[in-house]
Amino acid sequence: MAKTIFEEMGGAYVRQGDYFLPCLSLPAEKENKPVGVWGQRHLRYLKQHRKVLYTNLLTSGKLNSYLADIDEQAEDLFFRLVNQMVEREGVTEQLKAENRIEWVGRMNNIRSRAMEIVDSELIFTV
Predict the structure, then answer these.
(1) What is the pLDDT of residues 2-29, one digit of tens each?
(2) How far, in Å, CA of 69 to CA of 8, rounded?
(3) Distances 51 to 14, 36, 48, 55, 122 between C-alpha atoms, Å
(4) Closest CA to 126 of 56, 45, 58, 48
(5) Distances 50 to 38, 81, 112 between C-alpha atoms, Å
(6) Going along the chain, which residue ranges are E strands?
(7) Can you give the pTM of this predicted structure?
(8) 38 neighbors 122 (Cβ within 8 angstroms)
(9) Contacts of 100 by beta carbon, 8 Å cutoff, 6+ apart
């Protein structure tokens, strides 16, 4: 019996009952970096809106490193934006000591705006 193209390229088959199924496996990723909140949000976006890119990253074994990189970039951008806005708007430790409710409200506002910027710049784009 002649070899199939799959067998010529080094593939093998396993018999399952009356059928021969190809032995397929995903390539192992080189590094298994942890993926944080930003990376998980981007993963959800890819699964829902960019299915082809998600499938390509998954089958090439690059999904985890890609998401870890996005997570790291988003985290850096978020903290940089928060620090810049805090300095620009004059939200200081003195305000925190004098009027905590005012400080918390302004910090929540700053964090919300920074999250929206990170979402629009990194998380919900490709």
Answers:
(1) 777 777 777 787 888 888 788 777 666 6
(2) 37
(3) 30, 21, 6, 6, 17
(4) 45
(5) 16, 27, 25
(6) 13-16, 19-22
(7) 0.77
(8) yes
(9) none
**Token pair in block for residue 5:** 């193209």
At 56, list the tokens. Answer: 């390509």
Sign of CA dihedral 65, 48, 42, 122: positive
Tokens of 119: 């979402």
* Residue located via tokens 């430790």: 93
Cβ-based neighbour number of residue 3 at 10 Å: 9
User: Six-digit token pair at 19?
Assistant: 């059928």
**Torsion angle, alpha carbons of 48, 58, 33, 73, to 10:** -50
Distance CA 26, CA 57 (A): 11
pLDDT tens for each residue of 22-33: 877 766 666 678
